[in-house]
User: Fold these one by one.
Assistant:
Number 1:
Amino acid sequence: MGARARLETADLNEPLTMVPSASTDVVVASLVLHYLKDWGPLLAELHRCLKPGGALVFSIHHPITGWLRSDRTDYHRVELISENWDWNGKTVTGRMYRRPVSAVFTSLLEAGFAIDAVEEPQPAPGVEDPELDRILRTTPVFLYVRAVR
Ligand SMILES: C[S@@+](CC[C@H](N)C(=O)[O-])C[C@H]1O[C@@H](n2cnc3c(N)ncnc32)[C@H](O)[C@@H]1O
């Protein structure tokens, strides 16, 4: 990338003080936001950083799948859920926040974004594992959103 890009690390629960206001064309957040409990402060920061017309593009675990993995006591709350992954034979537990569909979009609207596109993606042909292909093709695994300042 040479001098054309600058790499910074940040805790997304904190203000993004290194990013000037109205300086950014696109924010991409792939499978990140569901690790944050409270979206309000971050969405306000991203709205501040984006240029007018700039886009926030993100994917999260689909709220319906999160609900199926929860204890299902109250769909309408934001709750911490956990999931076990097989990592080369070792079980790793991931923890993330499940939120209702309305909370996803209300948070964006309250931060001043307009919803531009929503997708529940299915895989392109060529997934080698037939069981994984079936799951990705027939269940709500991910939610993709593009929101515009
Ligand atoms: C499932 S990984 C996704 C990585 C990559 N974006 C991708 O799509 O392959 C989740 C990422 O969220 C980051 N993350 C989780 N909580 C965060 C926080 N509070 N601040 C910054 N990054 C965070 C983790 O460091 C990790 O890189």
Number 2:
Amino acid sequence: MKNRYLGNSGLAVSRVCLGTMTFGNKSWGCDESASQALLDAYLDAGGNFIDTADLYAETVSESILGNILKGKDRDSLVIASKCWFPVGDTPNARGLSRKHIVEACEASLKRMQLDHIDLYQIHGPDPYTPIEETMSALDDLVRSGKVRYIGCSNLYAWQIVKANAVARQCNYAPFISGQYLYNLIRRDIETEILPACVDQGMGILCWSPLASGLLTGKYRGVDIPDPGLRFKEVGEILNDRFIWKEALELVDLVCEIGQDLGKSPVTVALSWILKDYAITSVLAGARNVEQLAPSLESGEWDLPDEQCERLTAKLPREHGYPCDWMKIALLPNFTKTEFEPNRALRFPPLIN
Ligand SMILES: NC(=O)c1ccc[n+]([C@@H]2O[C@H](COP(=O)([O-])OP(=O)(O)OC[C@H]3O[C@@H](n4cnc5c(N)ncnc54)[C@H](OP(=O)(O)O)[C@@H]3O)[C@@H](O)[C@H]2O)c1
């Protein structure tokens, strides 16, 4: 399994991270013994990076992870978790207050039977808590040794930059990673979030890299998915998020390219994401070892340039304003040097 540094940090992680949202999920997930088999297959493939959250399976994912990590070489692993979603009915059992962050982290450590979390991420933005309070609480967790690094997920780009500016100003630990929805169908982050993370020296971890299973190609020609599959159980969320005419045509192209190259569409779709060195890891989700196998293959296999370009061109991201304006006003006037300096490389429309 190939490794990458997580942003500007010195933390080396596998480019395929094991997602654990399926662990303990009764409707579209797997039980503890299947979770154990997934972990074993992932470690056998040389992976070192595991992502969970207190939310997953209503905290059961973390408990299962704690049980199945027993006997493993914990120090060789990078274990990530998250807080923010409600874990109880009371007003403070959610969000990013100092009270909740500290209590959530301690509860996660207890469930996972660990003494520290390597990457602790805020799962979303809390508009009700000052970012200074959040960054100070996260920094305390780092200084106390309960957490090694911090990251964020699902923040707006301006919030990422503001949070890290506060951290710099106050000498707090900054975010070293952003965890975001990114796949061949949903490329929203290319406009603002990906450039913000690159600017901040943050690695990017991609969730739902297979569009919750759509990019496997298994729904082609299927009207109603089978029970137990994600698109059956939470279809009201996923249909709007991933399914429209051009997206389905993109799935066809992924399958066609997979067939030409003798690879699973899964391996092709994940390897397309990993072509971009701004991306650190894809988060692989699976219900069983058979599903995980082609995801693990993308930890080693690189998509050839030609097929990568075909996929990139199939459903290009429309950046809208102000990118449109810059195409007219900035491009003809500014790009006059021999090559683009690094600091401009992630500035749409200077790229793509
Ligand atoms: N930060 C966040 O807000 C956030 C949000 C979501 C997820 N995450 C993280 O990202 C991880 C991955 O997310 P995800 O599960 O949505 O990823 P995904 O890769 O888009 O979807 C995984 C699902 O696709 C299907 N699948 C995977 N491989 C397959 C194969 N070879 N053949 C057929 N079906 C296959 C399985 O679902 P079915 O069998 O049900 O079809 C599997 O559970 C999670 O575990 C979690 O760690 C984070």
Number 3:
Amino acid sequence: MANTEQVRVWNEVNPPRWIAMRGPLERALRPFGRAAMDALGPRPGELALDVGCGFGETTVELARRCGAAIGVDVSQPMLAIAQAEAPKGVSYLCADAQTHAFEERFDLVFSRFGIMFFEDPAAAFANLRRSMRPAGRFAAVVWGLAAENEWAQLPIRVVGRHLALPAPSVGPGPFSLGDPAAFSRLLSGAGFANVSVRPLDLPFEGDAGLLLQAGPAAAALREAGAAGDSLRPMLEAELRAEMPARLGAHALIAVGRG
Ligand SMILES: C[S@@+](CC[C@H](N)C(=O)[O-])C[C@H]1O[C@@H](n2cnc3c(N)ncnc32)[C@H](O)[C@@H]1O
């Protein structure tokens, strides 16, 4: 089976935290998803696939704009919530988007921060392209490089004063598609046409509590176990005191044709 570690993480590690911070996280991610969806331009009558759909907020928005959307994700706990809230026109599939043989042929393939976790991105993007109708449209938003994301760097600096930080991760992870040239080559190599990858710089609208629950600093805190738990209130106060009025977030919007 592919992606076993990410399947474990998104079923056993992340869901409780993601469920707890769902509202604030959704508010922080929404502007990025909206920009990617505007780049996609869903039209009534089109069928959309939402890759790594999580709780399905963007799947519902896709269906609202075009009539029908399917969300695919490996996280059963997150999909159970999405499923319970699914309006007409929305359905969900628990499957690995890297390997699943989709029966449908999609007019649109979309993702909001759900495509950075594949262990074999070339195979995954080729699989997604195969799921599309000829000239179908692809649009996705991913994080830029970690070093260019102040929302990730500032909490790391604060946590790093008090706890050992893990080595920056290589391989699947939130910043794995952050190099625009490499991301563009990956999509073209998977057979997408008219690929373009452009920066999207917006403020990250999250407070100190959220920043210590999501992202690399949160991982360091979790790994510290009980020591991390007891430091959390102090770290949160320290982070709050250092947060600028505008915390920068650097994302990339990729578009292409199937
Ligand atoms: C950062 S979350 C984004 C969730 C959602 N798109 C959002 O914006 O709220 C990444 C999502 O990708 C899913 N994911 C990770 N690897 C996947 C894979 N191989 N196939 C399908 N979904 C995957 C995770 O389970 C998780 O729900």
